Amino acid sequence: MSRPIVAIVGRPNVGKSTLFNKLAGKRIAIVEDTPGVTRDRIYTEVEWLNKYFTLIDTGGIEPESDDIILSQMRTQAELAMDMAHVILFIVDGKHGLTNDDREIAQMLRKTNKPVLLVLNKVDSKEQSEHYYDFYELGLGDPIEISASIGLGIGDLLDEVIKNFPEGLDTEYDEDIIKVAIVGKPNAGKSSILNNILGEERVIVSPIAGTTRDAIDTYFEDGEDKYLLIDTAGIRRKSKVSENIEKYSVLRSITAVERADVALIVIDATQGVTEQDTKVAGIAHDEGKSSIIVINKWDLVEKDDKTMNMFVKQIREKLPFMMYAPILFVSAKTNQRMHKILPKIKYVSNEHSKRVHTGALNDVIGEAVLLNQPPSDKGKRLKIYYATQTSIKPPNFTLFINDKKLTHFSYQRYLENKIRENFGFEGTPIRFNYKEKERKR
After folding, report:
1. Residues 345, 347, 352, 355: is their CA dihedral positive or negative?
2. Looking at the DSSP assignment, which residues form a beta bridge with residue 220?
3. Which of 209, 297, 377, 425 is least enclosed by beta carbons within 10 angstroms?
4. What CATH number is attached to the domain comprising 216?
5. Please, are residues 233 and 262 in contact by the beta-carbon 8 Å criterion?
6. What is the value of pTM for the model shown?
7. Do 263 and 289 have their domain in common?
8. Are residues 373 and 347 in the same domain?
9. What total number of domains does the chain contain?
10. What is the CATH number of the domain that holds 386?
11. Which residues are CB-neighbours of 146 under 8 A, at least 6 positions away?
């Protein structure tokens, strides 16, 4: 079962991103007082009354058309029609109804999906002077809110969850392993998905860009539950011309954000390309478990040194991802495909692994004895205490004497010692430093 999707649409400058950030509880979308500003991310998970849904901010494209507003409206409405179960149509309660609002409303009425008309920028409990004008749109009672100060947000969310279609998954299930299959176009992502599922769930075509949306497929393997997210191939920016292609790139990036594990699919016939390093970088920066899957291995001429040479190339081009296991497979011939699912489960467990504080401090203490921390102007870094503060990815907080004395090379040394003793294969590790308060 897929999670409900709620799309925010509306003309520029009505407060779409402000509402998105308010519902997300953090600043994800870039908010600028300029129409058409590009945003880095457009998805977030939202919870209200123990019901979970995916929220999309449809703003933030760079239209090719000279008519920026018409192009934006069209793209936003199309995205909402394609993906959303509920659409939030945001209008400006201060400035009143515009012709652009009328055009968007006309498009949204054709979706046959629940559309909630949201009057934003109503910053007091008094009704907007333009309130009744919006009945002209034929979208029912306007819901007044102020996204900037949070007024009316609870009432809006009540209406949102009332309009979810039946049969969608609104519960949070931490036992589900979410896997994003990412990589360049034509690397064989859909073929790998179909092979894992054992049936033709996704259309496979040799034409680059066939998979335009991120497609979620839920399945069970024994007692294990998985959600596979097949994504559009991430292309170089210069090749992304259509607006729909731009959204495909964003969907690929945000698929990684939604996942626990990223399968980074690389075409064996091309080797590791610059674009592959960018895809891997996204997964690393987002703190996801990763498996590097070299597909089409059957098409490579090889001898007894080929695989080792390939591993060396991967490690050289992806030095930040030394922790990621590498699988050489062929979705076409089924070579080593049986290893993917067990490896996904393994790195997912490593991603959520916790280590005991006592054991961690024993390892850190021994590491410090073997290799003294760096010093600067006669002052040496002291590590008083270490503890694991979170998982997915594993986060370690070190209590020290002075943050200025921390150095990347020593952090890497400590990371290696932690991996030697506790594993954490397939997952990045994060470090935080806190200065211990001096006694007065």
Report:
1. positive
2. 225
3. 377
4. 3.40.50.300
5. no
6. 0.64
7. yes
8. no
9. 3
10. 3.30.300.20
11. 120, 121, 122, 123, 152
The Cα angle at residue 394 between residues 390 and 399, in degrees rounded to 5: 70
Residues 328 and 196 in one domain: yes
Residue among 183, 213, 272, 192 nearest 78 (CA): 213
Q: How far apart are alpha carbons 302 and 440 in whole angstroms?
A: 67
Enumerate long-range contacts of 209-217, CB under 8 Å, 24 or more apart.
Answer: 209/185, 209/233, 209/235, 209/245, 209/248, 212/244, 212/245, 212/248, 213/82, 213/83, 213/248, 213/251, 214/180, 214/251, 214/252, 214/254, 214/255, 216/2, 216/3, 217/193
Is the same domain home to 213 and 261?
yes
**The one-letter amino acid at 331:** A
Structure tokens that stand for 254 in this block: 């945000």
* 171 within domain boundaries: no
Neighbours of 175 (CB within 10 A): 7
* Structural domain boundaries enclosing 135: 5-162
* C-alpha dist (Å) from residue 271 to 260, 277, 325, 344, 388: 25, 11, 16, 22, 37
CA distance 156 to 181: 34
State the number of CA atoms in the 13 A half-sphere of 143 facing the CB: 19
The candidate with the shortest Cα–Cα distance to 322, out of 330, 331, 332, 311, is 311
Does residue 264 lie within any of the structural domains? yes
State the DSSP code for 68: H
For residue 440, being part of any structural domain is answered with no
Same domain for 34 and 107:
yes
Q: Give the annotated binding-site residues for GTP.
A: 10-17, 57-61, 120-123, 183-190, 230-234, 295-298
Q: Could you read off the pLDDT of 323-363 as tens digits, one per residue?
A: 999 999 999 999 999 999 999 999 999 999 999 999 999 99
Whether the Cβ atoms of residue 427 and residue 391 lie closer than 8 Å to each other: no
Closest CA to 183 of 243, 255, 264, 73: 264
Is residue 111 domain-shared with residue 158, that is, in the same domain? yes
Residue that finishes a domain, picked among 133, 162, 191 = 162
Binding site, annotated residues: 10-17, 57-61, 120-123, 183-190, 230-234, 295-298
**SS3 (DSSP) at 85:** coil
Distances (CA, A) of 330 to 292, 311, 341: 13, 16, 14
Tell me if 145 sits within 8 A of 118, measured CB to CB: yes
The answer to whether residue 89 is domain-embedded is yes
**pLDDT tens by residue, 16-63:** 888 988 887 755 554 444 444 333 336 677 888 888 888 887 763 333
Judge if 187 and 334 occupy the same domain: yes
Q: What is the pLDDT of residues 88-122, one digit of tens each?
A: 999 999 889 998 889 889 888 888 899 999 999 99
- Decide if 278 contacts 312 (C-beta within 8 A): no
Structural domain ending residue among the three candidates 121, 137, 162: 162
